[in-house]
Amino acid sequence: MDQPPILRGMFGSLFRRTAPPEDDTPNPQVAMAMLLVRVARSDEDYTVDEQAAVDYGLAKRFDLTPAQAAALRAEAEATEATAPDDVRFTRVLKDSVAVEDRPAIFADLWRVALADGDRDAHENAYLRVLAPLLGVTDRDSALARQSVQTQ
């Protein structure tokens, strides 16, 4: 049975409003920047050391100049609070990073979390949430953290 035009218009409008825009998928650089900034802000104390660690991680991972990394971090800072949940960002990284390289991403996240010299419970909890979303085991997360702590 065909829907009356009024219902087709209402339902079509509803689906258009609730469906994510097709071009709204972030690239891996933006996804990584967002996660790094979220880790840094998860303890509600976003320090200069954490910002420097975000820049370092972005520059190293994506072969960016310091200015490019800082600009990418600034973009992530400006949009992080209103950005959707982490699943979208972790999915982008899972799709673009080989399984064996994901612990290195986790080392970057730990480097930011530990940059202020404090292993905060909020940061720990947030990284525990991110590990399975990125397909990283608890063991690999712990090894990544230990690697960062010994550097």
Structure in words:
- There is one protein chain.
- With 151 residues, the protein is mainly α.
- The chain has a single domain (26-150), classed as TerB-like, CATH 1.10.3680.
- It is built from eight helices and no strands.
- The chain has helices spanning 5-18, 28-41, 48-62, 66-79, 86-96, 102-113, 121-134, 138-150.
- α2 runs antiparallel to α3 (48-62), α3 crosses α4 (66-79) and α6 (102-113) packs antiparallel against α7 (121-134).
- The longest helix has 15 residues, at 48-62.
- The chain is globular and about 30 Å long.
Instruction: Give the distance, in angstroms, between the N- and C-terminal Cα atoms.
Output: 67 Å
Beta content = under 5%
H/E element sequence: HHHHHHHH
Kindly identify the CATH topology: TerB-like
The CATH C-level class name: Mainly Alpha
- Average predicted local confidence, pLDDT: 86
Give the CATH architecture.
Orthogonal Bundle
- The CATH superfamily turns out to be TerB-like
Which descriptor suits the 3D outline? globular
**pLDDT < 50 runs, ≥5 residues:** 7-22
The proportion of residues forming helix, as a percent range, comes to over 70%
Total count of strands = 0
Q: What is the overall number of helices?
A: 8
Taken together, the total number of domains comes to: 1
Structural class: mainly alpha
Could you tell me the radius of gyration in angstroms? 18 Å
For the biggest sheet, the summary is: none
